[in-house]
C-alpha cells in the first residue's frame, strides 16, 4: 500500500521515502534474522540523513501488527528517530499492536510507550479493527479506507467456459488466513459431488504448513480439484482473478485490518465469501456485495459455497454489486482524495 501512496501526487505535500522492506519473502515476515539487524541500522541512518538534509516536518510511519519481532523493530526505529520530527503520523496498515502491551516486561513497556504513545495523527483503515489509535492516545485520528489502481487485463469474452465453479484464494498461506477452513469446506463439497476447481495463489508461511495442506488434499482425494500455484504477480495473478467465479477470504489473521485482495476481487466482479473479521465487513455488505461467515467456521463457509454453486444468478448479482461498490469507494483516486483531506487538516 505504501507503493500506491508514493505513486500519487498531493497538493502542498512532498513525500520522502525510506524503504523498509525487512522481509524479502512471505516466510520471512515476523521472523528474526541477523541480516535484518544490518538493515535496521541502515534504515535509521537513512531517516536521520533525510531529516538533516531536507528537514521534513513529519515522520510518517506504518506501525507493526500483532507480532513481537516487528514491534521490537518499531521500538528501535521510533525511539531513535521520532524525536527529530515536529510531528508523527502513524498509518495502521496492520492491526493489533495494542494487544501486545499487557504481555510485555516492565522495561519494554516503557520503551513501547516512548515509541508509540501520543502521535499527532493516526490513520486507520476501519473502526472495526483493534483500537490501536485510541490505546496509544493519538491526538487525532482519521479513517481512510485503502484504494487500489484499476486493473482489468482480460476481456469478458475471454473468460473460460466451465460447468462447475472456480474458487480462488489469494494471500499468504497460513492457518489464520483460513486455508484449512477452506480446504475442509472443499472436502465436504467434493463428498456432495459439487463440481468445482479451487486455486490457491500465494506462498506458504512454512514448509510444515505446506506439508499439512498437501497431506489434507491427498487424504481427501482433492488432487484433481485443488491447485497450489505459489506467488503470482502481474498478468499471471490477474489471470486467476479473471478465471474465478468466487473469491474466498476466510481470514482470522492476527494482523488483518482490511484485505487488499478483497478489493482486487471486487474489481473483477467476483462473488466474495469472507469472514466477518476486523475491517472486512466495511468492504462486504452481507447478501448485497458478498456473503459473510463466522471466522473459523468451515460449516458456514461450506453453506455459502453451496448456496452460490446452486444459484448463478445470485453469484452474478453479488459480483456486479461488489464491482459497483469498488468503483464508488475503493479506487486509487478515492484514496488520494481521502488522504489529501487528511494532509490538509494537518497543515
From TrEMBL:
InterPro entries: Glyco_trans_1, Glycosyltransferase_grp1. Gene3D superfamilies: Glycogen Phosphorylase B. It comes from the Bacteria. Residues 164-323 form the Glycosyl transferase family domain. Transmembrane segments: none annotated. It holds the Pfam family Glycos_transf_1. One of its GO terms (molecular function) is glycosyltransferase activity. PANTHER family: SLL1723 PROTEIN, SULFOQUINOVOSYL TRANSFERASE SQD2. This is Glycosyl transferase family 1 domain-containing protein. It comes from Arenicella chitinivorans.
